[in-house]
Amino acid sequence: MLAALLFALTAGMVQMQSGFFNFCEHGGKDQIPEQLRPFVPHESNFITTCRTYFLGATTARTLIVGRATREGNLTTTVTMSYMQDKEGNVVKGTNMDWIFYLTLMIYLLAMISNSGRTLGGRAVRIRVIDVANPDAREVPLRKAVIRYLVMFIGAVPGAAFYVYQYWSKGGIADAMFTPDALRMFAACAVFGGVWTLALTIQIARKIDPIYDRVARTAVITVLRPRA
């Protein structure tokens, strides 16, 4: 609700895109606005305009300009995103998505360190315990932090390379997404996929995932109390 209120009060200069419902419309190259900064990808041939909603209220508007090229069975897409205000004009506003991710991380760490259970964990009757002190209700904050850091290792290479490309290339899509860069992004995606698959297999086989082994934690099932 705060995101929707800020969008309305600032005429779209403050936005949040994460965690909400998106509605997008697509258009051709003849609809691409002129003089966008950073520059649109070379030979752009499509646009997409998206609205982000929360309970029917707009929290963000985004213009995406890109180039899609197809060679055989392979389609390569390079895009650049621009924030739009309440009226659909491209603006340099403030993106508040970091609040969503920061709040999510604080929630996870607080719940696990205080009780070993998130709301979802309570629903499915599981909780995280400290292997060194399994009878304790709490999990040391240090172990909770280590657990989630290791859990998301698969996303680190891709995120780090994107940040490096964005800052070193000035946010210009054509410079960021060269053939060599796309191969690097693909390698990062493969690494992330392999990491996720490995964790999934460990969980399916009822083996403590590597993040629990590194943090010295474990997930147990909470039995229903006898009547």
Describe the structure.
This protein has 227 residues and is α+β, with helices and mostly antiparallel strands. The protein has 2 domains: 2-95, no CATH class; 99-221, no CATH class. Helix content is 41%, strand content 25%. It has 8 helices and 8 strands, in the order H-E-E-E-E-E-E-H-H-E-H-H-H-H-H-E. The chain has helices at residues 2-9, 97-115, 119-123, 141-151, 156-168, 173-176, 179-204, 210-215; strands at 14-15, 21-28, 46-54, 57-71, 74-83, 94-95, 126-130, 217-221. The strands form 3 sheets. The protein has a 4-stranded antiparallel beta sheet with strand order 2-3-4-5. A two-stranded parallel sheet has the order 1-6. The chain has a two-stranded antiparallel sheet with strand order 7-8. Strand 3 (46-54) and strand 4 (57-71) form a beta hairpin. The protein is globular, with a radius of gyration of 22 Å. The mean pLDDT is 92.
